[in-house]
């Protein structure tokens, strides 16, 4: 029996080598700043850089969790996929979308574009997913082949998520996902609660480094371990903010002029049409913020064409927030993605990646193209492009 099993295993290995089939595991560590490996002791991320590719990735605007995870999944900027913020007003449905409100969050009709798991599945590839934004929502009527519901309690712990990814990859080849996506929230939680420069975040980053090492060793121990690519990256960075760096705006506006002010980083003002100019004029000359009518948002932010974007956007400078002071957490994100503090770590190693290679900075809209190339599938048209990232691949 044992002989038969090992013969079977050999056959599987030969078959996968013959087919040249590679697997890809992509991990998002929420709010993992590009320079955490410089600030803290991260031997595994340093090893990934030596044995693979190291880069800094630029998030899309606004540098928030839902918009950016869904951008990585679809290759579209938030303005184009429609999840334009963690919360936003939808003027067509007259409804406030909130990522924390199950009814709106699970309403698939909010989610435009095509997540990579659907593109892959349409082309016969199985996918596994542990908590990536959008994966437990029936976008285009489909889920990943294997997925978990984020709100189902108890939520999988960090080590259970690693074990679950390995379990998926241990499935018989015909059931096995070729793309596995895993999400971890801790670096974001610690960054917000204690700031990116705290001893708590320090410890969290080092624990995540060890967790990724554990994942990598688990992957390597599989019979086809050498055929697995591992990418570790994030949705946005984290900046230090403080209770004395607030720009109040409400006292400058007549309540009659707007229907909603949503968020403080950026603040989106949904104005009454006849008072749009009044709101805009009243906010001129403020320090530490930039104020735009949605059609005047600078082109590099790729934001403003979607009806869900507020009529007036107030974007604070790095380290500042709009409105209501005195009680704030010490870490925040949502700023202009061109600030270094909003940019994220990217590491990748495995059979398709160059070794010891530092890639130029790239935009997160191009991850979809990278994953499509790794899976040898035809991508949908997106805002990203393979040319931006193929330099990191062994051709
Ligand atoms: P942010 O406010 O941008 O810092 O959002 C971070 C939060 O997003 C995390 O703490 C999670 O609670 C939440 N989150 C992340 N992934 C998911 C998901 N797949 N489904 C629901 N909520 C999520
Ligand atoms: Zn996030
Ligand atoms: Zn966050």
UniProtKB/TrEMBL annotation:
Q: Which UniProt keywords apply?
A: Signal
Name assigned to this protein: Alkaline phosphatase family protein
Q: Which domain of life is it from?
A: Bacteria
Which CDD domains does this chain map to?
Answer: Enpp
User: Source species, please?
Assistant: Phocaeicola plebeius
Q: Does the keyword Signal apply?
A: yes
Native organism taxonomy: Bacteria, Pseudomonadati, Bacteroidota, Bacteroidia, Bacteroidales
Record flagged with keyword Signal: yes
**Which PANTHER family has this protein been placed in?**
BIS(5'-ADENOSYL)-TRIPHOSPHATASE (PTHR10151:SF120), ECTONUCLEOTIDE PYROPHOSPHATASE/PHOSPHODIESTERASE (PTHR10151)
What Gene Ontology terms describe what this protein does at the molecular function level? Answer: hydrolase activity
Query: Signal sequence: where?
Result: 1-19
Matching Pfam families: Phosphodiest
Which InterPro entries does the record match to this protein?
Alkaline_phosphatase_core_sf, Phosphodiest/P_Trfase
């Amino acid at each position: 029996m044992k002989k038969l099993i090992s013969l079977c295993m050999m056959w599987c290995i030969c078959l996968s080598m013959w087919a040249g089939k590679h697997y890809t595991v992509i991990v998002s560590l929420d709010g993992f700043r590009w320079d955490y490996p410089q600030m803290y002791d991260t031997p595994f991320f340093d090893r990934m850089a030596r044995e693979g590719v190291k880069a800094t990735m630029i998030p899309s605007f606004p540098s928030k969790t839902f918009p950016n995870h869904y951008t990585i999944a679809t290759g579209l900027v938030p303005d184009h996929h429609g999840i334009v913020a963690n919360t936003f007003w939808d003027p067509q449905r007259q409804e406030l979308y909130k990522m924390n409100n199950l009814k709106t969050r699970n309403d698939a009709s909010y989610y435009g574009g095509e997540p990579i798991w659907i593109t892959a599945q349409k082309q016969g590839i199985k996918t596994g997913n542990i908590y990536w934004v959008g994966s437990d929502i029936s976008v285009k009527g489909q889920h990943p082949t294997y997925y978990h519901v984020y709100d189902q309690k108890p939520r999988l712990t960090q080590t259970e998520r690693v074990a679950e990814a390995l379990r998926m990859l241990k499935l018989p080849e015909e059931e096995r996902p070729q793309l596995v996506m895993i999400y971890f929230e801790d670096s974001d939680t610690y960054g917000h609660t204690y700031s990116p420069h705290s001893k708590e975040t320090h410890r969290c980053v080092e624990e995540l480094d060890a967790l990724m090492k554990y994942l990598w060793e688990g992957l390597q121990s599989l019979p086809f371990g050498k055929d697995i690519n591992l990418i570790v990256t994030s949705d946005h960075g984290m900046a230090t903010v403080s209770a004395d760096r607030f720009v109040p705006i409400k006292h400058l506006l007549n309540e009659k002029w707007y229907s909603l002010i949503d968020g403080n980083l950026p603040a989106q003002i949904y104005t009454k049409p006849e008072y749009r100019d009044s709101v805009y004029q009243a906010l001129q000359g403020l320090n530490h913020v930039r104020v735009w009518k949605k059609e005047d948002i600078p082109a590099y932010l790729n934001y403003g064409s979607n009806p869900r974007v507020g009529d007036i956007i107030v974007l604070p400078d790095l380290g500042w927030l709009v409105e209501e002071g005195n009680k704030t957490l010490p870490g925040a994100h949502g700023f202009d993605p061109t600030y270094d503090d909003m940019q994220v770590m990217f590491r990748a190693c495995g059979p398709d990646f160059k070794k010891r290679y530092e890639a130029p900075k790239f935009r997160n809209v191009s991850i979809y193209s990278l994953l499509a190339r790794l899976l040898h599938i035809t991508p949908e048209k997106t805002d990203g492009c393979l040319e931006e990232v193929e330099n990191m691949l062994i051709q």
